[in-house]
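Board notes (copied after class):
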Amino acid sequence: MIRHIVFFSARKAEDLETIRAGLSLLTEIPHAARLEIGENVKTDQLGTEVDLVVYGEFADAAALAAYKAHENYQRSIDIVRPLREMRLAADYDTALAAVAPIAG
């Protein structure tokens, strides 16, 4: 499984809802096993520059590529890019990830 995590910040606070609406178009793309758009609750004193997070889970790299090729992906970019300050993305394969043991 591929996890796709993207962090966004708004240039202006008043654009946050428009950015959220643009990112919400991504939830209509059928290739993700799970896709969430969340607002950073900013409880970490060092992580307050991030406003919104896209979290997606994809069966494999092909599913992630199909997601990015969908027309709603470009529609979302067209809305969000002019309004965002920062975008940081990371993708990783869960089969290769280190996993902590379950605390008991």
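Comment from the instructor: The chain has one domain: 2-42+50-95. The CA atoms of residues 27 and 34 lie 9 Å apart.
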